[in-house]
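[Automated response] Your request has been received and processed.

Submitted sequence:
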Amino acid sequence: MRAAPLTLFASLMALPNLIVCAQDKASQELVAESAQFRALMRGSPALQLKLTELPMSPLRPGWKIEMASSVAVDGNGLIYVLQRGSDADPVIVVDRQGRVVRSWGRGLYKIPHSIRIDGTGNVWTVDAGSSMVYRFSADGKQLLEINVGGLPTSPRSAFCGTTDIAFARDRILIADGYANARIVEYSNEGKRLREWGVPGKGPGQFRIPHAIAIDRDGIIYVADRENGRIQRFSPDGRYLDEWRHLGKTFSLKVAGAGDLWLGTQPRDVENGAEPWIVKVDRKTGKIQGVVESRGHHSIDLSADGEPLTGARPDKVLWFRKALR
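Generated structure:
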């Protein structure tokens, strides 16, 4: 009986070594996973796209954008840029030549994060600092605001709110990815319907659901960024399956033809390093083509199917099929 304390002491002494071993194993697994990801990117078909920059014509001396957090393209080919600088409005609308058509939103945002355009041409923005979601007309008239709420009382980071939005036929889905780990559903009129998802690594659990998209069959795709996977759900939020071969995914976009586009990177480097734009089969996750990038925080497509994204510190990238 007297040996029990010694046994307990020995067990306690062994705990640090066990923790270190677990950390080493996780680190080794991450390195191996990232090596596989890089090999997959290098071995995949190269998309015949040329990386260019959208020229942004200054409105006045000293006018500039900073951190183009998100980019969206409307049915008329106008490009909507959601940016975080103080010299220009948060929402800037430009034509294909980069000439500013209109802008708005000053004073509305803490951390502008995502901009999307719904099927009727309305413009939606998501704020990662306040969890406020706004709907505007195409000319910038505010039509609706949704306060998702649920912010932690003592956030460890300024990023503590919503991340992205997607549109179903009869509702909207908001990814609440910073601090929370959930998908929140609303009616098109802004009435809260339900939420689902909890923190974790299992099916239907999240570690920063950073992007969300819905295809024409109603299948929901969530970029579970820190878990290094894309999870797929039925229209009612039931877990279907997941893809773990596509790296640390930041952005998602379902094309009109049904293909899924994403912005991603290896998991063993800092955010923003080694970005790729990837086109995959939305039903299987099989890669159809890749292109190296300088940004991947958001992704949208022109009417010609050309990807656009933002890049630090002040660029909008445009992957063109042919220079025009």
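Summary generated for your ticket: The chain has one domain: 44-320. The mean pLDDT is 92.
If you did not submit this request, please reply to this message.
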